[in-house]
């Protein structure tokens, strides 16, 4: 499968997209909101980790409200050096600039291959191809990384470590916001052995951005996803039945709730439906870090959040590995994967 980067490079003066990349949008997909009222919640992590008791309490409340109302928020003052974030973005750009032959070394075939490079999402089942190239590699509990380009492994190792530390601090706050102890989620899901994936996405300029899409509407399979990007925006989330552009501040992380958090919280914090748009002028690079429980962990609603009389279990229990394989091996269709574990009211 030819990468989008190669397709654009080989077709100088490309004025239209091949038919297989034409994405049909549903009538309720537009318009996209830029209304200031739809601004993304901002969480100051320093107030959670080093604030006064009152500041910490307010931040936990804000975090819970952001999870419940949006399923997404921006994190500032997170402690990850801006230089490292820029180095990671640059290293991923250098990876995508490798030759097609060099990148093919990391082709991978299975969703659980530790390093996998390709285009679209799953080209073998995708009826429509997406305007996106990707690199996915597992970074915890065992660290894997491409050996090219020079320095990539070292940068991604440090970036992954710092991202995991950030995620664990956020999970403490989220756990508290659910009325659980600050280490409840970490202990219940054995997050010392958390499964962590780093995904780099490349969205080259597209001659017909209104017809193509970078990634279709979907939710993420893990607990939390941390996202950074170069200075080109493209992330859109669904909020109150409309699509909203997500424009993050410099040196900030965009964080969204994943399906495992929705399951564990028994639906109180719902995973957010999001997509990636493309543009005709600039290349967008985004880097997502997905944090989930260990692959062999069976995840279900936290018993403390289930009350048989008033709040019955809304999801069955499923091993995280099985859930991930189910989502990644099928055609992307919104949040349809959750239907496999959802318990419908009697």
Descriptive account of the structure:
- By secondary structure, this protein is an alpha+beta fold.
- The chain has a single domain, classed as B-lactam Antibiotic, Isopenicillin N Synthase, Chain (Jelly Rolls, Sandwich).
- The protein contains 9 helices and 15 strands.
- The chain has helices at 4-10, 45-50, 53-69, 82-96, 100-104, 152-177, 184-188, 259-264, 320-328; strands at 32-33, 42-44, 72-76, 115-119, 133-140, 195-203, 215-218, 224-229, 235-239, 242-245, 253-257, 274-276, 284-292, 298-299, 318-319.
- It has an 8-stranded mixed sheet with strand order 2-3-11-8-13-6-5-4.
- Helix 3 packs across helix 6 (152-177) and helix 4 crosses helix 6.
- The longest helix has 26 residues, at 152-177.
Task: Write a concise keyword list for the protein shown above.
346 residues, alpha+beta, Jelly Rolls, eight-stranded mixed beta sheet, five-stranded mixed beta sheet, 9 helices, 28% helix, 21% strand, globular, metal ion binding, DIOX_N, Oxoglu/Fe-dep_dioxygenase_dom
